[in-house]
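Entry for the shared binder. Reason: the reviewer on the internal report wants the predicted structure included alongside the sequence.
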Amino acid sequence: MKKLLFIIILLFFCLLPPGFVRAQGESGEQSPKEETLEATITNILEEKEIEVMEKKQLFQKLELLVTKGSLKDKKIVIENGNLPLANLQKFKTGDEVIVSYGKDFEGKDNFYITDYIRRNSLFWLFAIFIILVVVIGKWRGLTSLLGLVLSFGVIFVFILPNVAKGVDPVQTAILGACFMIPLTFYLSHGFNKKTTIAVLGTVITLIITGILANIFVEVTKLTGFVSEEAGFLQSYKPDLINMKGLLLAGIIIGVLGVLDDITVSQSAIVFQLKDANPKIKMAELYQRAMNVGQDHIASMVNTLVLVYAGAALPLLLIFINNPRPFSEIINYEIIADEVVRTLVGSIGLTLAVPITTVIAVLVTEHKS
């Protein structure tokens, strides 16, 4: 659930342009040096195949109605496909797009379509998600959504601003986790011993995971500069953000999102077994709970690996039909980064089961 909403929010905020299309507009009014407009394609004036740099590609001449910005309610004309583009889009009537508006060195209007407007689709997807969680989860689902909102509040109000200011990312992530864990756990699962045990098990597991991540990020010589975003951050705020620490912080927060499920479930299993048989011995209680926990480990580790694999699918294509040996490819930082992230997270999930089980067994034994 948390990963789903995280992906939705990333899609909402991170609008990455698939390419640029250029044309001259019909308006000669003054505008800012560069402005982002929103427009709807009202007509396809021309559509044909042309050759650009010895490569055939689609050319479109589009008429757009500006719906937001300084040129609102005015029509502009944009030519799409007259420049070589790696990811050329085919537009159709009714498409809503984002347009970059500026002036060239001669003072003429330039328009570039930078992306589609996706807000409406994202809104309906988000609405479906909310409705299903509330209808199926009822009151517990509603409180879990509240916990989720508060978690994102911690991330956007505390973690991200502090990291952007140059505060140590790992320290910031751990402090943020200390706020998020009780907020999300108690709101989602109620104020009871079962949830308190899950909170304690999660904190202990998170500390171990953080230490393990720190060790193997150092041992594998990861720098944190493997992604384009990291390079952008470094050029935007040079030497301000610790990129290696940011990598560690990402691992910690990523694991936290999955630990909720596994620790709460394992704690609940112990309490259910104890309620079913109050005279059960500690060793047997632990063993029975671990029998269920082993199945939980198998499914959760598989889930975590597949989630990372799905996110890194383009990266995994490097392994296909590559003339270089596997032993060389696995050394690339872009690959090693994902391997460390996946394995450290999986180790954390695996340790969470016995740690939470032991705590729960001791608490139930003391209660009896």
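Summary line for the report: The radius of gyration is 26 Å.
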